[in-house]
Amino acid sequence: MSGIEDFEAAPVGVIGSVLPSRSVPAGEEIAEPYHRHAHLWHGPGLVRRALYGGRRAPLATIVALLILVGALAPLLWPRFYAGYGHRMIDLAVYRSAGQSLLLGRPLYNYLTPVPQLLPFTYPPFAAILAVPLAVIPPDLANWIWNLGSIAVLGWLVLVAFRPLIRRFPTAYRPLVFAVLLAAMTWTVPVRDCLRYGQVGIFLTALCVLDCVSPKTRWPRGMLIGFAVAVKLTPGVFIPYLWFSGRRRAAVVATCWTLGFSLASVIAMPQASKAFWTSAVFDSGRLGSNSGTSNQSLRSIFLRWLPGHLGAALWIVSVVVVAIIGYRKARGISASGHELDAVALVGMLQVLLSPVAWIHHLAGFVPLAAGALIGDGRRIKPVIAGILGTIFFSLESPWWGQTLLGHHGTWHLGDRLLQDSYAFGALFAIWLLGRMGPSSRAQMASSDAVESVSR
C-alpha cells in the first residue's frame, strides 16, 4: 500500500509513528505538528486582511469592492424585491416558527401562507433561535440574513484559500479575494442558499471553527453540538471527531446536542414530543424526496430503483460510503490538513443524509475547492479545483430533469445529469482522499518555509 492507504491501514494512535521524527535536545519542547490551515483568519483584522491592499494600493481595494458589488447585486436584488411568495421562503419558515412560539400555536402543524404552504421541519431548539427573526420586519430580516450569509461565506473563502491568497503581494490580495468570493457566490448551492434564506453557511462555519481551530475558548465539540441541535445533518461530524482521535470532543458534542434538546423539551414539551415522535420520521414533510433538488444517495435509488430493493441497496451504499469516507477523513486529519478533512466530511453529510438539498453543499464547495487548489503550485489539483467550481456553477441536475421531461422515457444520460451533484460529491471525496499524505506534507513544508521567510 502507498499514499493515503498507508494512513488508512494504520490505527489513529500509531499514525504518528510513521511520520518523520527528529532528535530533540534536552530541555527543548517538541513543537506541535504544522497544520496548513491551523491559523484561521478571524477577529478584528478579518476585513483589513481581506480588502486592504496597503497604503500604496487603494485602487486595488476599490476595484475589489466593485467586483463584489457587481457579482452580488444580481443575486441579492431579486431576493429582496421579488414577489412575497418567492422571497426567501425558508427564512419565512424560520420566522413563522418563531411567531408560533410567541403566539402559542402548534409548531409543527402550522404552514406558511399561500402559495408555499411549507411546514417547519427543524428541531424545536431552532424555533427558539428564530424568535428574534419573528419580531423584526420581514425586509430587515432578509437583509440581515443574506448579508450575514455573505460575510460568513467570505470568512470561509479566506480560510479555504489562505495559502493561495498569501502567495500574492499585499497590494493584489483584495483582488484575489474578491474574485474568489465572487466565483463561490455564483455556484448553484450558494445561489440556492441565498435564494431561499437557508442556514447552511452558518452551520458550516460552526463546524469549521470547532474542528480546525488549534485552540478554542470553548469546549471543543460544543459548536458542533449546537449545530446539530439546530439541524440534524451536521451530526456526521460527531463520528468524525471520534474516528479522528478526538473522542472527548465527540462526547462533548453529543452532550451539548442532548443538552440543547433537553432544554427545548423543558421549554416546549408538546412541540418536542411532536418532533421526536412524529415529525423527525416523516421525510415527506421536507418535500418530494425523489425530486431533483435532493442529491443524497437515497435520492439516486428513489429515482433509479424505487421499491424495497432500492431501499436495501441504499442502506448498503450508505454503509460503504461512510466507512470509506471516514477512513479517508481520518487519514487527512492525521496528516495535518484538518480543513481538507472537514471538506470531505461535508460532502459525506450530503450523501449520507436521507434528504439533502442542493443548498446543503453551499458551505462545503468553497472548502473543497480551496483544499484542491492549495497554494496554486501544483497544476493538476488547481485544474481540478477550477473545474469543480465551474461544475457546481452549472445547473446540470435541472438539465437532466428537463431532458427527462422532453424524452418522456428513462434515459441513462438524463438520469446521470439529474444526479450529477451527488456523483460530484462522490468524486470530490475520491479526489480529496487521493491527494495522499506525501503531497500534503510537501504543501505544508512549502507553507512553513514561506511563513518563516516572511
What report would you give on this structure?
- This protein has 454 residues and is mostly helical.
- It has a domain at 282-454.
- Helix content is 65%, strand content 0%.
- It has helices spanning 4-9, 46-51, 58-81, 89-103, 124-129, 131-134, 138-160, 162-166, 173-185, 188-196, 200-212, 222-230, 237-243, 247-267, 269-277, 297-304, 308-334, 338-352, 364-373, 379-391, 396-407, 412-418, 420-434, 436-453.
Set out the fold topology.
Layout: H1 4-9, H2 46-51, H3 58-81, H4 89-103, H5 124-129, H6 131-134, H7 138-160, H8 162-166, H9 173-185, H10 188-196, H11 200-212, H12 222-230, H13 237-243, H14 247-267, H15 269-277, H16 297-304, H17 308-334, H18 338-352, H19 364-373, H20 379-391, H21 396-407, H22 412-418, H23 420-434, H24 436-453
**Main β-sheet description:** none
What average pLDDT do the residues reach? 84
Q: What's the count of strands?
A: 0
Radius of gyration from the CA trace? 22 Å
Number of helices: 24
Cα shape: globular
The residue fraction in helices comes out at 55-70%
In sequence order, what are the helices and strands, one letter per element?
Answer: HHHHHHHHHHHHHHHHHHHHHHHH
Q: What percentage of amino acids are in beta strands?
A: under 5%
Sequence stretches where pLDDT stays below 50 over 5 or more residues: 1-39, 449-454
Cα distance, first to last residue? 38 Å
Structural class: mainly alpha
